[in-house]
């Protein structure tokens, strides 16, 4: 029957750990027993040598060897057996220089030549070895036997039964195996604990599944059109996909570095690091409007997702422009209907001359207003924006006028940026003035240039912005609009200035207009600020360096007027 290899990670780790633990335990036991056996052999041969030395040190045995003949009942045999029995040796053989035995455990072998070579001992060398003789395998030692003058007259061979040595070794084996079993049991228990923990962490998936999950994860992270940034508990980047690199200006080499070092100080860094909490948080990075969601992980880190809402914001602005155009058309239609009714009434009353005068007055007033704007603002997009906003402001009872210092040539590099800035500033001013109604309510626009720099300034007679909030109104998530209901100002929001009819800079979910203006100005290398207007109200100033081209373009409007004349 074929044994199948387990597929789950925890089972494979358990099998591998058990095999490793068993192998290491067996190896350690073998490595311990090998020197232990050699040590026991060494102890046995050392003991045999000690007995041999003791025997050779007895002068009586030397005299008896020189004065008597080898005999089973001789004095040499008698003294050797006495020492053997006293020491527990297997045998003690006393031999002369010819290798003839003078003593032996078996008396019948006395007078015969020894079975092993005695030449080394008879040459004066002590010998220790494990060898096989007439009495079997034994641990033996040989020592030279000398007379009183130091002359070698024979040798003594002592043997210790090798079986007793093996018995000692085998006697130690159970104890060693018990220790090995304890170590193996501890290893198995540790393997089970590790496998169980690993099974919980891997949810019982197999190695193939993990590999497939990693491949799918990489494909998903780098294929989706949503930015993903993973950070550890210390705020260091663990992973950043392609879209997040594009949105945040990061690269693959930034992995392992703290987010605070990679991103400039601001709301984006605060949101991604968790210093600002919430869902669907709006922030601006490199001129892009991002929606950020941050989800903490169990190890103390977090995964943040980023969605690019720039296109959606642009569509929203286009929709706002469309609504503005509809408001303008609605106002024009209402105004036109009133004028037609007036003309119709004058005609029915028979006052034809007065009707003609009224039509001329209306036409001249409108032409004068349009001509005034066209003379001072030569860019057609900005001029059209101001004309439309003027009509909307008039319908709300607010005068929208141009400053006498306004003069913008037709050399704007990107008119859309100026339309974005000016449109947002006029809308904010119009809402502030409408909410803070005054008899002389007005909005004043000033567009002037300094070489290639454009300075846009919008003043209003609204409630103004308190000094402590003049920086915060340019942050993402803040708005100068009053929340619905008018009285839902959060406790954290500062109170309005004395005389103000509405709260100022109340935190809202949107509040991106002024933040976008500041980021756009910073992208040009300029700035955006708000100050107080003399007589009450606010003055928003935006400076855009290099917003005008160096080369003077033909003034299309003036040329057209010259041709018409």
TrEMBL record:
What organism does the UniProt record list as the source? Streptomyces spirodelae
| EC assignment | 2.7.13.3
- What subcellular compartments does it reside in? Cell membrane
Q: Which SMART domains match?
A: HATPase_c, PAS
List, as start-end ranges, the regions of compositional bias called Low complexity: 483-501
Q: Where is this region: Disordered?
A: 478-505
Q: Does the keyword Aminoacyl-tRNA synthetase apply?
A: no
Q: Does the keyword Plastid apply?
A: no
Q: What is its main location?
A: membrane
Histidine kinase domain ranges (all copies): 335-548
Its membrane topology: Multi-pass membrane protein
Q: Its Gene Ontology molecular function terms?
A: kinase activity
Q: What is this protein called?
A: histidine kinase
Q: Tell me the CDD domains matching this sequence.
A: PAS (cd00130)
Question: What InterPro entries has UniProt attached to this entry?
Answer: HATPase_C_sf, HATPase_dom, His_kinase_dom, PAS, PAS-like_dom_sf, PAS_fold, sCache_3, Sensor-like_sf
TM region(s), chain numbering? 176-195
Keywords linked to the UniProt accession: ATP-binding, Cell membrane, Kinase, Membrane, Nucleotide-binding, Phosphoprotein, Transferase, Transmembrane, Transmembrane helix, Two-component regulatory system
Report domain PAS positions. Answer: 220-254
Q: What chemistry does it catalyse, as a reaction equation?
A: ATP + protein L-histidine = ADP + protein N-phospho-L-histidine
